[in-house]
Amino acid sequence: MQRARAHGGWSRRAWLALAAVSIGGTGIWVMHFVAMMGFAVDGTEIRYDLFRTVISLVLAVGIVAIGLSAVVNGRAGWGRLIGAGTITGIGVASMHYVGISAMRMSASVTYAVTLLVLSIVIAVVAATAALWATFNVRGMAATVAAALIMGVAVNGMHYTGMAAMEVTTPTGRTTAVTGLDAYAFFGPLAMVLGVLTALSLLAVGIGSTEKEIEEDLWAEQQLRTLLGDRADG
């Protein structure tokens, strides 16, 4: 994200979009959905509403983009960071619960309020820490450590939210479950996100670093100053 901050205009927007897809889509949403594929309820199959599932993906990418943009485009400070982290965290929690609502099964779902609120708090704290790390952590070792911490935090939010669920299956004969099998659409979506993430990594690999951009800007400024002095002379 240092590249996004160093650039302006369309270049900045492109870097922000790539980061939002990588973090919100491949990182957060794919983790959420893979974990959901491991969820089972005795006595009923689980299928998914395609529209709500896609909405949860759009929420994950869109809210992360808003959070990153808020930090990149404004003055650095704890107030802006906490505000962006709060918005992003609530958005991530919304993605989770919209994804849960996409499940179709012959059972009813309620939530334990305390654990539900705790999952949102974890999401806000994790999002704030992730935004801080995105713009402040440098170096491979520190980046890997930050990624591991964020991974644990996001998983903690997910499983706290799952622990808040109370699923009740009806007694007697169950009704038919409508919707799509998870594997019917997860594969194509994951493939698209994987390609976009690969393109992001390629762009990071061949793109100029923040230091190189600053050096180019400094050299350009020096050249303009030199040409201006000669014109005045």
Automatic annotation (TrEMBL):
Protein name listed in UniProt: Membrane protein
One GO location term (cellular component): membrane
InterPro entries: MHYT_dom
MHYT domain location: 1-168
Organism for this UniProt entry: Actinokineospora globicatena
Transmembrane segments: 15-41, 53-74, 81-103, 109-133, 140-162, 182-204
Family matches, as Pfam families: MHYT
Coiled coil: none
Keywords: Membrane, Transmembrane, Transmembrane helix
Entry keyword annotation includes Protein biosynthesis: no
